[in-house]
Amino acid sequence: MLFDQDGNFKIQQLFSYPNDNYERLKKEALKCRRCQLRENANGVVMGEGNLKNKIMLIGEGPGANEDRLGRPFVGRAGKLMDKILASVNLKRKELYITNVIKCRPSGNRAPRQNEFEACVSILSSEIELIQPKVIVTLGSTATKYLINPEKSITNVRGKWFKRGDLYILPTFHPAYLLRNEKMKKYSWHDFKLIKKAADRIKELSNSGEF
């Protein structure tokens, strides 16, 4: 798990990245070759989006299109996610979207524990820089690595987990929804919760409480 119950990073990090300037963080992260994933990937795929709205969406890792274009969530799953966001009056540019790992595993397999640990310093710096109030874990891999390795996404999706001042909401990965269309209604319910959280964060920001 990345977080303990108080919202502190639980995993010991052997590497550090800039956590006060996104462009410096990205520049350093793009050089990463700490695990074997980089050998077969076109490059490191960093997150993108809004750095100020305090909401992060975290998926598993880049797919083939993401690896080719160097951007997260730009394939079929990403297009579906954009549609789900639009259905609850959210825009992609209002959120920060990234992945647990930044290089594509061959065959689009799930990332292994050692690969997560090699890449987690980049993710941690993204979180430190953005200081989110809400993190949405997309799919089982992100949910297990951030919340609890024993948790099943089907059992925890749509439920809030509090870690210190941080709230984490697991939901299905859009790639899963492409294969299981009947589950889209549950994801839509989850994203309505995310919309409510986004509106509340905006309200508090406008009032100067953030």
UniProtKB/TrEMBL annotation:
The answer on whether this UniProt entry bears the keyword Hydrolase reads yes
- Which family does this protein fall into? Belongs to the uracil-DNA glycosylase (UDG) superfamily. Type 4 (UDGa) family.
Q: Give the record's keywords alphabetically.
A: 4Fe-4S, DNA damage, DNA repair, Hydrolase, Iron, Iron-sulfur, Metal-binding
Q: What class of enzyme is it?
A: hydrolase
GO molecular function list:
4 iron, 4 sulfur cluster binding; metal ion binding; uracil DNA N-glycosylase activity
Q: What are the EC numbers?
A: 3.2.2.27
Could you tell me which species this protein originates from? Halanaerobium congolense
Q: Which Pfam families match?
A: UDG
Query: CDD domains, from UniProt?
Result: UDG-F4_TTUDGA_SPO1dp_like
SUPFAM superfamilies, sorted? Uracil-DNA glycosylase-like
Catalytic activity reported: Hydrolyzes single-stranded DNA or mismatched double-stranded DNA and polynucleotides, releasing free uracil
Annotated Uracil-DNA glycosylase-like domain ranges read: 46-192
Designated name of the protein? Type-4 uracil-DNA glycosylase
Q: A GO biological process this protein is involved in?
A: DNA repair
